[in-house]
Design a protein that fits this description.
binds zinc ion, 292 residues, 2 domains, alpha+beta, ph1033 like fold, elongated
């Protein structure tokens, strides 16, 4: 069942500025009813006050948020495919108001936003409604920051950026010994944005799990006498995630790579990772809260 989502301008602007993309949160349980592969159509207002289509998320996963995230953004979350979802250029898009008013059920309020308050911010769409929206979206300009080259799959960049930043930032424990020569140059980033991180948090995780992968239990310390697992931000910093212990998980390099490459999501309902259709429960957990 496709969904229609009203994104208040305030949240839309903040989400776009924070690069908080390819997922949406809400308090409405309707968000759970969309099936993977179905679409969520989000509309908002641009700076002129026009109602415009903001995004077409092709849903790849859905789940419950962590308790802290729930408090702020609501318990339900859907993730959009980074390769096939689209973000439209709200400033250059024509008004979609007449079309939205023609959809069923009809929006009756004089001001469209008023009929989409609270849980009504998410609605079911009929297939006919969706056909109308699809046709309307066909020629819309794409958002220039999310899709810098006008291609929908360019956003895949984000994944590698996040991973390379996480891997490249040195911690005091991994400083190069003198015999390895000069320190390497700082990493160059696809996006000119580095998110501040507390270097103490990964070390706390390493101690908490004796350096083991929380997903498979791999224990490099017993074999190689080294810390080889990596702290991963469950909600990526580049998607607005927090640099806090309850947003971090310790993963072996294989699982870390797999999580990024498949854009896997952690469902806090059962603390299970979703790699597309494949599900892997966390094996070791001392610090992550389940969804209430
Ligand atoms: Zn692992
Ligand atoms: Zn990561």
């Amino acid at each position: 069942m496709p969904l229609l989502y009203y994104w208040t301008r305030e949240n839309y602007v903040r989400n776009m500025d924070d690069r908080d993309w390819f997922h949406l949160n809400q308090g409405s349980p309707l968000l759970r009813e969309a099936a993977e592969g179905e679409r969520l159509w989000a509309f908002t207002r641009n700076s002129r006050g026009d109602f415009v289509l903001a995004a077409e998320l092709v849903i790849t996963a859905k789940g419950l948020n962590s308790p802290a995230w729930t408090e702020r953004y609501g318990p339900f979350r859907v993730w959009g495919s980074m390769s096939s979802s689209a973000y439209f250029d709200a400033e250059r898009s024509p008004s979609v108001e007449a079309l939205l008013r023609a959809l069923s059920p009809k929006a009756k309020a004089a001001r469209l936003g008023q009929s989409f308050q609270g849980h009504a911010a998410v609605r079911r769409l009929s297939l006919d409604d969706e056909r109308l929206l699809s046709a309307f979206a066909l020629d819309l300009p794409l958002h220039p920051v999310v899709h810098p080259e006008g291609r929908r799959d360019v956003a895949r960049f984000l994944m590698d950026e996040e991973l390379s930043v996480e891997l490249a930032l040195p911690t005091p424990q991994t400083a190069l010994p003198g015999w390895m020569g000069e320190a390497p140059p700082p990493p160059t980033l696809a996006w000119g944005r580095v998110y501040p991180r507390d270097a103490a948090l990964p070390q706390r995780l390493q101690r908490l799990y004796d350096g083991r992968c929380q997903l498979c239990g791999w224990d490099p310390a017993s074999v190689y006498h080294r810390q080889l697992c990596e702290a991963h931000h469950i909600q990526w910093l580049s998607r607005g995630g927090w640099d806090r212990l309850d947003n971090l998980i310790l993963l072996c390099p294989n699982h870390h790579r797999a999580v990024h490459s498949l854009d896997a999501t952690l469902d806090f309902a059962d603390l299970t990772w979703r790699f597309g259709d494949r599900r892997e429960p966390i094996q070791l957990n001392e610090h992550l809260p389940r969804a209430a």
